[in-house]
Amino acid sequence: MRKTAVLLTAALVLALAAPMVSAAPVDVTGTVESRFEYKQNDADEWVLSGKTGIELSPSLQVGDRVKLGIELETEPSSFDADGSPAGDFTGAHGAMSPVLSKVWLQTTGAFWQDGPEVTTTIGDYTINWNDWVGRLGSKRTVAVEGIDLMVADADVFYAWDGDHNPMGLRVASEFQGIDLDAMVLYRGGALNAALGAGTSLNGIDVDGVVAMDEDYRYAFKVNAAMSPMEDVTLKAGYRQMQDGFNPMYARRSGDNIVPFHKDSRESGFNIGVETVHQGFVLGAAYDQPTETATLSAARTFEFEGHAIDTKYEATLVRGQQLRHELSASTTTDMIPYMPGVGLRAKLMAEGTDIDYEVGTSYTAPNGISLGADYSSVEGARIHGGLKVSF
């Protein structure tokens, strides 16, 4: 709790300082979460362990248009990549000290008298404007957003990143039923660009993106979807990438570019169909060249006043065993003093390997979450926690 006190003290300092800036209001957002687990360790001993995480982001409104924002994080970070608390609950307080990680100023208004209103941000700002060429993350930035060009809306930025600082332009428009968006990024003499479009033609929804790196290598992707009859949807897509395509600021998963395909850089296609029949949502899909085929079926059953959500999925990848996954979940009010208890189960089979999971969860009126799980791989676990976001 002393970690929380340090962060809340920082917020209080801003609150006390606010009257000196025309009684400016302070808006504090953030997350504080603690989780506990009771399970067996590697020595088969039952132990209780805890994790905690803290993030805090106060902002100070100065006048009608200007906002000062800061972000405090623990060092090292107390949340992992999945957003789960990662700090040791019993660790030394100094081992998870809050540090000032971001500062920014933001104002809304015109650059000249009676000019168009735009939003200008100066400082630490996240630029994730385009997954193909414009995913910079958090950088020291000057960004101007909401520029009205009459025929389009535009945003521009200049960021500091190493020896060569990037600058970019994003534009979005609509023309005769066609949604258009584009982004151009320039850094150190190199130019990256991406252009996207989407529309509906005779009941067929079509969208596509083409992107280019600094060496004029390209990648593109097109998708189409249609409903030839009620409750039936057909989907198809094609993608192609030149060898060596390497934009400077793409969203990546390892060496792969996520908007192209998270698991492959090779050209290929995908097809799929989804339909509803007698309450079942049925789907089938195939992707090439990953040679992945999936079949799925989902339905909600009513049983003794309970809505039970069920789903089956089969995945076949060339050269691998067929993988089956069957899951079911529901909530029950059968315990009078504990309404909304969640129940879930999952069965997974791949070749001769069979794994399963069962679990229950409950959120008490005081906000504390409680639960118990059993996994054929991880064993039994009892867990609880409390999270507040503000």
List keywords for this structure.
4% helix, 390 residues, mainly beta, single chain, 22-stranded antiparallel barrel
What does this structure look like?
The chain has a 22-stranded antiparallel beta barrel. Mean pLDDT is 86; it is low at 1-23. The protein starts with a helix and ends with a strand. It is globular. The chain contains 1 helix and 25 strands. Strand 21 (323-332) and strand 22 (341-350) form a beta hairpin. It is mainly β. Among the domains are: 1-109, no CATH class; 291-390. It has one helix spanning 2-17, and strands at 26-40, 46-62, 66-75, 87-88, 97-109, 118-130, 134-148, 153-160, 167-175, 178-187, 190-201, 204-212, 218-229, 232-241, 252-253, 256-257, 268-277, 280-288, 292-303, 306-317, 323-332, 341-350, 353-363, 369-375, 379-389.
The whole-number mean of residue pLDDT values reads 86
In whole angstroms, the N-to-C terminal distance is 17 Å
Basic shape: globular
Any idea what the radius of gyration is?
26 Å
How many helical elements? 1
Q: What fraction of residues sit in β-strands?
A: over 45%
Structural class: mainly beta
Low-confidence stretches: 1-23
Helix-residue proportion: under 10%
- What's the count of strands? 25
Order of helices and strands: HEEEEEEEEEEEEEEEEEEEEEEEEE
Major beta sheet summary:
22 strands, antiparallel, barrel
